[in-house]
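Re-run with default settings, no changes from the original entry. Doing this only to confirm the output is reproducible before filing.
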Amino acid sequence: MNIETFVDRSLGRWRSQRSSHNLAFQHSEEVLSTVDIVSVAASDPSVAELCKAQGFEPAAAVSPFHMAWQGESDWDDDEKTEGSCLLVPIADPDGAPNQGKLLRSKGYAEEMPAVGEYRFTEEGVFVLITPYDRASAEERIWFGTPNLRFRVSMIRTSDGKGVVTASFSSEIRAKAES
């Protein structure tokens, strides 16, 4: 698996069911959401802007994409979660096809721009580790079938020794409307 194939397989609308456990507060939450993943042209000005802001050459961008989500939690019936971010994979400078950097216009663990490191395992699992100011996030995403994705996420303490939250998501591609 390489980043181009992974992004291409991820494009579309996904229905996501996430079970999240906050270990610090001993609280669990179920979230149902819709996730839209669309390709963004490498020549899009927002790609160049994000690359330059993070100290990367825009020419190194590979398969940029935009992700938007809307969801509902069982924790608070009145609260709807929603957001979006631009994600720009950066090719490994040594040419390794199964690893590189991932720039995010908004982070997963903290709402700030972030730079993570990704790699693919031999089994084709996408592994992303992103350090933040007060924490770090580790995500693993893999495909059960072309229309079924699984995602495991952990938010760790800034020293990496403790796990604050852990979640599991199953994501099913929504059928195209005719």
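The two ends are 31 Å apart (CA to CA). Helices lie at 3-10, 45-53.
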